[in-house]
Specification:
About 50% of the residues lie in helices and about 10% in strands. The chain has about 300 residues and is an alpha/beta fold. The protein has a 6-stranded mixed beta sheet with strand order 4-3-5-2-1-6, sandwiched between helices.
Length: about 300
């Protein structure tokens, strides 16, 4: 990951300060920091690392505290492992297998915009026309430069090198369900909106990365809330998408990662948006009696 712009706030250990921390809301306690120590009496501590699912040169090197925590871990827990069958199944789910086409769903003008947006990753017009709207949405990212690997991919590769036990918190069918059961009306509305505001979304992606490099989780949420507020015509669709992709999955992941947390010495890598807030994994674990302390 990139280096932090400054030191992150830590949960303090003195008794008086602990009493103060207990009165803070989850949004305040877990607003800053991407590496967190998770501990409980009688169990070796584990670590949770909030990542960005993008390959960017500024994320090419894992920070020293992350490398140290990962180096002492006995297992790696990730959101999802996409190998072999999983990749093929996800691609199958993202495409229309009948006579439906993307151009019919979003219109010829927006279909042309989609082709242009996906041109950098080399997708043919025929292939794009068979993608479902959510399949296009997931690919509307600026192409990465150089040979950078996303932090998740770096950790996965390191775990394979170490022959480290690897656990996924979600299966492929759960990943498919999140996107494929999202109402078509909302898929179309969000895709058309994204295509119409590509430049702004690219700017927001950069702002989000900058906030992440500053370890500002609250800032990341603020950026996205402000963007959604500017376009009330898609606010309901955006809220439903966020509920499915972030909040609902945070609950599942907070539950499933505990199997390894209870064993101790686990290293959990999860998207940074899943960390903060009342419904974030850190607060959900705190409610289960875990002590959460910011490291980096």
């Amino acid at each position: 990951m990139g280096r932090a712009a400054g030191l992150t706030a830590r949960l303090v250990v003195a008794s008086g300060e602990l009493a103060f921390a207990a009165n803070l809301s989850a949004s305040e306690r877990f607003a800053k920091g991407v590496l967190w120590r998770v501990s409980k009496a009688g169990i070796a501590p584990s670590y949770i690392y909030g990542t960005m699912h993008v390959a960017d040169p500024r994320l090419a090197e894992l920070p020293a505290p992350v490398r140290k925590a990962f180096g002492g871990a006995h297992s790696l827990v990730v959101e999802y492992v996409a190998d072999g069958y999983e990749r093929a199944r996800f691609l199958e789910a993202a495409t229309f297998l009948d006579r439906q086409t993307l151009s019919e769903k979003i219109g010829k003008e927006d279909f042309s915009r989609a082709l242009e947006a996906l041109r950098p990753i080399g997708l043919s017009a025929e292939f794009v026309n068979k993608l479902k709207p959510w399949g296009v949405l997931l690919n509307l990212r600026a192409p990465s430069s150089g040979e950078s690997m996303a932090p998740d991919a770096q950790l996965y590769a390191l775990a394979l090198q170490r022959r480290m036990p690897l656990f996924a918190m979600e299966g492929v069918e759960e990943q498919v369900f999140v996107f494929d059961e999202f109402p078509m009306e909302s898929q179309v509305a969000l895709l058309k909106h994204a295509l119409a505001h590509r430049a702004e979304l690219e700017s927001i992606s950069e702002q989000t990365l900058q906030a992440y490099l500053a370890r500002d989780l609250a800032g990341i949420w603020r950026i996205h809330r402000e963007f959604a507020a500017r376009y009330p015509q898609v606010a309901d669709h955006h809220a439903r998408f966020t509920q499915r992709v972030v909040f609902d999955r945070s609950v599942v992941m907070a539950f499933r990662m505990q199997r390894q947390l209870r064993k101790g010495n686990a290293f959990v890598a999860v998207g940074a948006l899943h960390l903060p807030g009342e419904g974030g994994v850190l607060n959900l674990l705190a409610q289960r009696g875990y002590r959460i302390t910011a490291v980096e």
